[in-house]
Amino acid sequence: MSDPGNPTLVVRARRLRAARGVVVARDVALTAAPGDVVAVEGPNGSGKSTLLAAAAGLLPADGASVRPGSVGYSPERAGVLPRIPLQRWLLGLARTAGLGRNESARRTGAVRRVDEAGLPAVLRAALDAGQAIRRVQPVRDTSLDFAGHEPAGEAGPAPRRAGAGYRVLYGAAHRARLLASSQWFLAPTMLFVLVLALAYATDAGPPLQAAAVTAITLVPVLAWLSVLAHRVDGRELARAFAAHVGGRARAHLATDLGLLPFAVLLALAALVAPLISQGEHPHPLALDGKIVGLHLAAAVFGAGIGSLLALIERAGWRLLAAVAVFLVLFVARDTPLTPLLRLSTHPTTLRTPAGGPAAWLWLSGLALMAVAAFLAARLT
Predict the structure, then answer these.
(1) What is the pLDDT of residue 193?
(2) Rounded to an integer, what distance in angstroms lies between the CA atom of residue 109 and that of residue 88?
(3) With 70 as the cut, is the pLDDT of residue 134 above it?
(4) Cα–Cα distance for residue pair 320/330, rounded to 1 Å
(5) How high is the pLDDT of residue 166?
């Protein structure tokens, strides 16, 4: 029965903001209890979808007091999970929300409890629907009702949640898993591998100079990969991720951090390629460190550019902006890419320093990521 004195859903906000920070409603107040039926009516653009998304905890609201309770939200249009099982996706979100491993597994496990008389019908329906049944076992625990839920009024204490830093790290692992499962990373990765094959098909000359050329190539490759990582699960599922990790800014940083495994693998590929094909040039350990360092720095800079480009909603405008950015980087003087361009066009030796170009790229890439995270909380 409905309990008006103790509502499950409470939303109060001075302003509700839709995409790009547009205010669609002011002085919002919504309360509902179990059993209530609430109809939200209004013309297109009046803020109905924004209100529902805020009630589900998927959108920030200025001066908000939101207690979403247990809310199921089904938008008109939602993204599709990128080749990842639903349970694994939910487990990743639970970990991103700061829950421990056991608590996350408990909340995402699909458990159906029925009495002995109802068991044959449940099994028959599951088999007819083609569902896999993992286990059927007798249960003596009476703390759960036959629907698999905790009885009302007997909920345990709120679980402990990890701090902001751990949640960003868990979120980064979740985003990296999504990108890997989607297989969207294959196109930019294969492009970089093709560049490596062409660069080292014959004598590539001084190793550090050739490495600078492939590091320059890694900048647009990581920018491309970064945009894919931010767009891998669509707007609505990305909102759910942001709500669990603690906001748009953290979600943006977590996605950027999730690119680290891909950057490391591509940097190692750039090291292995000349070791295999350029046997006539010596490769002391110090040179290997310079090669890996240059490529990691280029990857961070490219990821920073992609992090900003991902804020542009329309793909056409995003492509035009990317072309303009890289034209400026290659044509203008004294850009973060200029030291690397000089390194790729001037004779080098094993003693040629590479710390300066790498430092410019590292600092610039991290600054771009910070700016993108700041803007993400205000523009999306």
Answers:
(1) 95
(2) 10
(3) no
(4) 16
(5) 92
Instruction: Kindly state the tokens that stand for 349.
Output: 């030796």
pTM for this prediction = 0.77
The label of the residue with tokens 């480009």 reads 309
Q: Residue 154 is encoded by which pair of tokens? A: 């007997």
